[in-house]
Write a structure and sequence with these properties.
single chain; alpha+beta; Immunoglobulin-like; Neutral Protease, domain 2; eight-stranded mixed sheet; 26 helices; 40% helix; globular; binds (3S)-3,7-diaminoheptanoic acid; binds zinc ion; metallopeptidase activity; Peptidase_M1; zinc; Aminopeptidase_N-like_N; Aminopeptidase N
């Protein structure tokens, strides 16, 4: 907490550290009230640095002792600033001994050392290590660690830290100890310890090289029936990284520990990954198909960090996407490879792009817009964003699109060859890709330094006589905070051309010689602001399929007729663009209806079946050859948030009304087809979370949700029956959600039964809160009531997210209540959370990012709420940065 104006840190101000740390030895006397930490480190002067002093960071610490080279330092020999400890005129070789005390049980920020359900955990990324001891806590300072943990044996029977266990034993007096040594140099943000009453599922696993490693998944007692999926996911991750990238696990032991109080998803601490329980615990009773898939991808993500993040790390936090963008790309590819079939891979791709559009495009268009490699920050924790992660992953994906899988692998190999064991920059990754593929990628750097989502406009011309087809691409990028003018990007644009019967035409691009048969998809490289590409020997006027597979994170502007979109939806060989064509059709109709609502015209759906959209949906739903998971995506209307991004002035109530109207119309118009799809996609027998079964459940449950729009007793019975008979959480929660969003008589009883059955399962109770938070009838008053429920607490991030975030971000029509009560509620919760956990508070603070896009009456109320938060005393720099940037002109 601070009251002074927070400092902005700039990328251009980077200077190398004055000292390198070589070894770190730490002793912990773990006690929830007061934990003593004794640290001994050896340091040596960095000759390349102009920084003469030795700068250590520390926060919320009591300094008990400070010794340099064997002698206690007098107060004159060092300067204690806010958050820093500077040693004046140190010699070139230094051994520092520091004793500090922290109070883990008072630490509600969940950064540094804290207590969760009686056990000790740490979270050090980005700057949490400084809450444990004074240290040059910056990622380019890498050192070897040896750690001794001492604690009460009965309360804390398990003592874990990074690397290998080299000694353990009894201390007499009811206490015991363990010594851990990490053989690899690491930055302090990868340090971790865990101590407490935990049990583990463990397995020996043989690597491709024949070396045997020990894998463990640690959980609280009573959760051992929920660890198998995480263990299986870990084994698949290890195998995949060996096979796809030739990267082997470098430790003899790899541990995953689950914790119920955690700020984010998981953390890649070397050899000791700490996970939010949400991304570890699963069995059919408590976890949905989505949970299973998320667990696989997060386990993969953290494991892949072992190379992309830990072995090669970031020079400074501006380079965060170096490890995060790359590792998200790797986890996306891993999940796609695990599903196997081409159509299932496409489903994964569509889901990833949906996340980008739902969350990253709005970020890129709002007050917090920043480049993938930001130039400045006030609080680095505010920059663990969808831009750094998901757009960063798209940027990495573009290398693979440009160079192919083999070229990408060559770049990765060169990257590790050059930088293993080092802390480097995004530029180093780009250079490795360029050098390994013999290409100049200097223009490509703009993807890292310019914020905003580029727009790509497409014009085409067919010359019937010459049989040529020209595609002209024009790029632009809107102004973003601090960046008025943009340079043209290097954009890979994958294209195909369809003939009249929907088949791909062979492509002959003017000036390009290709050995072998002509391809049907080609990647055009747009590097100018405007560029034309001419295809030859095009026998008929084609329908173009542009940006196949979403080959670049841009907004595509292309004038298709409804008929062309329906044609692409039916025929494009690129499944991403098939889905995309359907989304465009649906968006077009939603926007037209929203316009009608705003002009007070009555909505009519009488002709829906005759429209291109009605016909296309009908065709998709009746096509038994299509993958159910794909159908589910194709028949899901763009979300209210995505629609809101398409209009100049957002009226959330109109958007909600027309989307609901369209869902009801589609339900009525295709009633029989939905009923058939519901029956045809049942998954009887024992539950399996595999992609095929999950896809069927997804389509079946989509059918259920459409049928429930009819709000007929017969449909209520269908949902009730599904709820009663479900043998898995996916079907159960889908039925419950359908009931809660209907007028079914049994809805309250179903909610109560659900609660009673799962009272002991925190992750399921989170779902119970979230489902109600997002229900159509849940208004602010109802959310305040739910906050008074005995099971609710603001202190647990999962619980706070399940109710408050779900309401503010997932229930736009109620959150944006015209009286502004939603914004008042939002401000109250941001302020309350700020005092408990600034990181979680700052996340919630982002919910009003796009306030300037709303109708003036709402804008005014949002601005007032933002101002109230900004004026709050003792605001953390996390929240202050977000609200200040939101309010800035
Ligand atoms: N690297 C961590 C995120 C840490 C967030 C700190 N505020 C998880 C991940 O991306 O794998
Ligand atoms: Zn990560």
């Amino acid at each position: 907490m601070r009251t002074d104006t927070p400092l902005t840190i700039y990328r251009k101000d980077y200077t190398p550290p004055g000292f390198w740390v070589e070894t770190v030895e730490m002793g912990f006397d773990l006690d929830p009230e007061a934990t003593h930490v004794a640290t001994r480190m050896t340091l040596k002067r960095n000759p390349a640095s102009q920084n003469k002093s030795l700068l250590l960071y520390g926060e919320a610490l009591r300094l008990v002792q400070l010794r340099m080279n064997g002698k206690a330092l007098t107060k004159r020999a060092y300067t204690l600033g806010p958050g820093t400890l500077e040693i004046n005129n140190p010699p070139d070789h230094v051994t520092l001994e520091i004793e500090t005390v922290t109070h883990p049980n008072l630490n509600t920020s969940l950064m540094g050392l804290y207590v969760s359900d009686g056990n000790f955990f740490t979270q050090c990324e980005a700057e949490g290590f400084r809450k444990i001891t004074y240290f040059p806590d910056r990622p380019d300072v890498m050192a070897k660690y040896k750690v001794m943990l001492r604690a009460d044996k009965e309360k804390y029977p398990v003592l874990l830290s990074n690397g290998n266990l080299i000694e353990e034993g009894d201390l007499g007096d009811g206490r015991h100890y363990a010594v851990w040594e990490d053989p690899f140099k690491k930055p302090s943000y990868l340090f971790a310890l865990v101590a407490g009453k935990l049990v583990c599922q463990e397995e020996k696993y043989t690597l491709h090289s024949g070396r045997e490693v020990l894998l463990q998944v640690w959980v609280e007692e009573g959760n051992l029936d929920k660890t198998q999926h995480a263990m299986d996911s870990l084994k698949r991750s290890i195998r995949w990284d060996e096979e796809r990238f030739g990267l082997e696990l470098d430790l003899d032991r790899f541990m995953i520990v689950a914790v119920g109080d955690f700020n984010m998803g998981a953390m890649e601490n070397k050899g000791l990954n700490i996970f939010n329980t949400k991304y570890v615990l699963a069995n059919p009773r408590i976890a949905t198909d989505t949970d299973y898939a998320n667990i696989e991808s997060v386990v993969g993500h953290e494991y892949f960090h072992n190379w992309t993040g830990n072995r090669v790390t970031c020079r400074d936090w501006f380079q965060l996407s170096l490890k995060e963008g790359l590792t998200v790309f790797r986890d996306q590819e891993f999940s796609a490879d695990m599903i196997g079939t081409d159509s299932a891979r496409a489903v994964k791709r569509i889901e990833d792009v949906r996340v980008l559009r739902q969350a990253q495009f709005p970020e890129d268009a709002g007050p917090m817009a920043h480049p993938v490699r930001p130039d400045s920050y006030v609080e680095i924790n505010n920059f663990y964003t969808v831009t750094v992660y998901e757009k960063g992953a798209e940027v990495v994906r573009m290398y693979q699109t440009l160079f192919g899988r083999d070229g990408f692998r060559k770049g990765m190999d060169l990257y590790f060859q050059r930088h293993d064991g080092c802390a480097v920059e995004c530029d180093d990754f780009r250079r490795a890709m360029a050098d390994a593929n013999g290409r100049d990628l200097s223009q490509f750097e703009l993807w890292y330094c310019q914020s905003g989502t580029p727009h790509l406009k497409v014009d085409t011309h067919y010359d019937e006589v010459a049989k040529t087809y020209a595609i002209t691409l024009t790029q632009s990028c809107p102004a973003t905070p601090g960046q008025a003018q943009k340079q043209p990007y290097h954009i890979p644009v994958a294209v195909g051309l369809l003939d009249g019967s929907g088949r791909d035409l062979p492509l002959h691009l003017g000036g390009v010689e290709i050995d072998g048969p002509a391809p049907t998809t080609m990647v055009l490289e747009l590097t100018q602001q405007r560029q034309s590409f001419e295809f030859r020997n095009v026998p008929v006027h084609p329908v173009p399929s542009i940006l196949r597979g979403f080959s670049a994170p841009v907004v595509l502007e292309i004038d298709y007729s409804d008929a062309e979109l329906a044609f692409l939806m039916a025929h494009d060989s690129d499944p991403f663009n098939r889905w995309e064509a359907g989304q465009r059709l649906a968006m077009r109709r939603l926007l037209a209806l929203a316009d009608a609502v705003q002009k007070d015209h009555a909505l009519s759906d009488s002709e829906l079946q005759e429209t291109a959209l009605g016909k296309a949906y009908h065709k998709i739903l009746s096509d038994r050859m299509l993958d159910p998971a794909f159908c589910e995506l194709a028949l899901t209307l763009p979300s209210e948030t995505v629609v809101a991004e398409q209009v100049d002035v957002v009226d959330p109530h109109a958007i909600h009304a027309v989307r609901q109207f369209m869902r009801r119309s589609l339900a009525a118009a295709m009633r029989v087809e939905w009923e058939v799809a519901y029956q045809a996609n049942r998954t009887p027998g024992s539950y399996s979370p595999d992609a095929a079964a999950a896809g069927k459940r997804a389509l079946k449950n989509l059918a259920l949700s459409y049928l429930m729009e009819l709000d007929e007793p017969q449909m209520h019975l269908l949902a009730q029956g599904q709820y009663d008979q479900a043998n898995n959480m996916t079907d159960r929660i889908a039925a419950l959600s359908a009931l809660v969003n209907s007028s079914a008589a049994g809805r309250d009883e179903a909610l109560a039964r659900f609660y009673a059955e799962f009272e002991q399962e925190a992750l399921v109770i989170d779902k119970w809160f979230a489902l109600q938070a997002m229900a159509r009838t849940t208004d602010v008053a109802k959310v305040r009531d739910l906050m008074a429920h005995t099971a609710f607490t603001l202190k647990n991030p999962n619980r706070a997210r399940s109710l408050i975030f779900s309401f503010c971000n997932g229930n736009p029509a109620q959150f944006h209540a015209v009286d502004g009560s939603g914004y008042e509620f939002w401000a109250d919760q941001v302020i309350a959370l700020n005092a408990i956990n600034p990181q979680v508070a700052a996340r919630l603070a982002r919910s009003l990012d796009r306030w300037r896009k709303y109708a003036p009456a709402l804008q005014e109320k949002m601005q007032a709420a933002l101002k109230r938060v900004a004026a709050t005393k003792s605001l953390s720099k996390d929240v202050l940065e977000v609200v200040t940037k939101s309010l800035a002109n």
